[in-house]
Design goal:
heterodimer, A: about 300 residues, mainly alpha, 12 helices, about 70% helix, about 0% strand, B: about 325 residues, two-stranded antiparallel ribbon
Amino acid sequence: MATATAAKPKGASAASRRGTTAVVPGRQKFGWGLANFAVVAAAAVPVWWLIALSFKAPSTISDGHFIPRQWTTENYSGIFSSTEFLRPLANSIGIAAISTIVAVALAAMAAYAVARLDFPGKQLLIGASLLIAMFPPIALATPLFNAWRILGLFDTWQGLIIPYISFALPLAIYTLSAFFREIPWDLERAAQVDGATPFQAFRKVIVPLAAPGVFTTGILVFISAWNDFIFAITLTSTTRSRTVPAAIAFFTGSSQFQTPIGSIAAAAVIITIPVVILVLLFQRRIVAGLTSGAVKG
Amino acid sequence: MSQAVEARAQTEESLDRRPSGRKRISDRARAERKLGWMLCAPAAFVMLLVAGWPILYAIYLSLERYDLRFPGQHTFVGIDNYATVVTSSFWWHAFWVTSFITVVSVTFELVLGMAVALLMHRTIYTRGLVRTAVLVPYGIVTVVAAYSWNYAWTPGTGYLADLLGSHAAPLTDQWTALAIIILAEVWKTTPFMALLLLAGLSLVDDSLLRAARVDGASAWQRFTKVTLPLMKPAILVALLFRTLDAFRIFDNIFILTNGAHGTESVSILDYDNLTIALNLGIGSAISVLIFIAVALIAFLFIKGFGTAAPGQEVK
């Protein structure tokens, strides 16, 4: 019988949690390794392809090689010296950031109410917000386009921020209320019994407990705003407020018959970097946020 | 309750007590309700304003003949726009394309998503790497991924184009283009499906599986007879979300083919009518029809399959 107290490698923690104590046979390890590799490769190949394209010189861009034979950074220097990319990049960052902050603030209040308080209309709010999450965005693009045109919000930052907030709210409320339900709120009262003022109790006990959930929700909201395409192309027309996904679709090459594949690939890689970094650093939190906010049995 | 405690309880209650016979809401409960409403109000207001009101406005616009090339002249025409759309072969073709893409991609996503969920649940090591790999397609901008696929399948430029013969241009032929679109969709959204299924998987009690193994069930039998039935609610919710999402497909088609060669989806049709033809009346009619289709799908799922209605899973 294998000893249960033998030192376990880090990855076997899941196995030990399930109560098995046997050492994993080599054949099984190979099988899992292969499966893991397949998943990682499937996810990575398209991303690598863009990276490869972005480093190819325009003359070699059509050679179809998976790994560039000649590497060049001229695509990157090209897009960074043109406002056609820099301005949309600034727009993307600013619009996504503002949308995230406002959406998380509003959602935190609503999620607190949903998780802790009892009031009629709670189910209605959850139901309505889920309905909104299922809306086909194109259905809203038409009326918003006309409304913004009349109100002067067309091609402005606010014109994009407002729909982004609205569409992020359902996801944010859902995720945050799941997080808030896990917090032991009585600790706040315990702190007050120990002599803390209500504000101190809030700041020193509740805030650290709520911070991971709020942070994770912020990441999810940021990704959804960063990603949007439909509103970005229908509600904007110039680089004044166009975000990068929309700007890429309208990149012009050196002639009107030549799509600037290298520049598009370089721009695509640049806007993927923040997301990949976020995902790398916070994958455990993001998975927790997405799965705890979903079905509960 | 002793006299003293009762007296104290009474003084703590609201001073204006309701007449006996009607249910009394205590002061505290009323304050809690008020706080609840106040906290939810801003979020509810924004959602109503930006999502609720435009759909009503879209219905209103769809009843008008409103062409932006002549912005001053818009006249009420009732359901004429709907008649035009519903009798147009463009609409039905787009509807068929959208349904086809939806059914095929969701099926693939369910199967692959389940496989990936099982992997994430049981893998023995490099969990972090697998999780990151699975989340990258989720986080990447859809348009970016679409460009990657576009250039991969472009003859000459791409590494995949030669798979179908040296003279094939897969993005210009309807069936291969549809296959590529479905591939792009499945790649992008299988992670989300996998995560939703993972949530359901983690609720399957391991002791049940072990009991089944003791009873002699094979791995496949354990999966189909224990795991799957217990995951049914999770599977149905994941299916519901993904089907609704798939029906709204836009980004991938826009970048891969822009709806050419018979790959136009209902959303692309709507976009073309709105921003290219500048026809608000027709565009709004299509928008409302898409909205009705999506609502119908949701209704069918909830009533037909007994999926938990929105709001029920949140206690």
